[in-house]
Specification:
The chain is mainly beta. It is 0% helix and 50% strand. It has a five-stranded mixed sheet with strand order 10-16-15-12-13, with no helix packed on it. The chain has a four-stranded antiparallel sheet with strand order 3-6-1-8, with no helix packed on it. Strand 4 and strand 5 form a beta hairpin. It is globular and about 50 Å long. The termini are far apart.
Length: 242
């Protein structure tokens, strides 16, 4: 299995103090067996709506450039996920296709928590399964990297679930490193301090719900998020639309 990432940390919302996000994120990997040509797929995911809140779907390194790949709530406890691309994806071993993100408040979750069905296109007849990231152990990344947030652009309505920002911290930082992840407007003013504290090497994820440090929903427009870890600094843009 090729996840192309390290361990995943729950979402954080420091408000400048490093406090945990009210609903920690829980992540699963959906894995499809090697296919001679994978160009399109669809599936239905069922989950216990009383224990989990669907937060979105994030592409893996294998599907980062796909034309479309997304998930949407079909009914309470049911999510439809699908995607397609013009170039077929091939692999000799099972490959991580995408991550499904949930929020929960300490629920006891394992592979039996989810059910997948209604395969279409190249998933029809393929073997698809889950691997929970919290049981996965992977080497720390070798270099710094700040990924584009997903989804982007993000609508004001979808910001309730949050847009996910992912970044890699290499092991050369030592056991821990001082890290800041801050949202700015285009005038350079601080909008939201998502995290300020220390983190261990690995791949980390934080979710921004579109609110500023005062808890007020931001207006539509273009914003920047900046990661600072040691001497490393990188910024990317996030667009909020109606």
């Amino acid at each position: 299995m090729d996840r192309g990432r390290g361990g995943v940390e729950g979402s954080g919302d420091s408000r400048g103090q490093g406090a945990p996000y009210p609903f920690p994120q829980f992540q699963t990997f959906a894995v499809v067996a090697a296919a001679p040509a994978l160009e399109a797929f669809g599936m239905l995911l069922q989950y216990p709506v009383q224990e989990l809140q669907f937060a979105g779907v994030e592409r893996s390194s294998a599907t980062q450039n796909w034309i479309a790949l997304n998930g949407s709530q079909y009914l309470p406890g049911m999510v439809v996920i699908g995607g397609f691309h013009v170039e077929a994806l091939t692999a000799e071993a099972p490959l991580a296709m995408f991550d499904i993100l949930f929020r929960h408040a300490g629920a006891n979750i394992d592979n039996n928590t989810f059910a997948i069905s209604s395969f279409t296109d190249d998933f029809n007849g393929a073997h698809v399964t889950f691997a929970l990231d919290e049981t996965a152990a992977a080497a720390a990344p070798r270099q710094f990297r700040l990924y584009q947030n997903y989804p982007n652009p993000v609508s004001v309505q979808n910001l309730v679930s949050g847009t996910v920002i992912r970044y890699d911290l290499p092991d050369r930082l030592g056991q821990t490193a001082a890290v800041e992840l801050i949202i700015y407007n285009l005038q350079g003013q601080t909008v939201r301090r998502l995290f300020s504290g220390t983190q261990t090497p690995g791949t980390h994820k934080l979710a921004w719900d579109g609110r500023d440090d005062a808890g007020v929903q931001v207006p539509t427009g273009t914003y920047q998020y900046r990661l600072k870890a040691g001497e490393y600094v990188e910024s990317k843009r996030v667009v909020v639309v109606k």
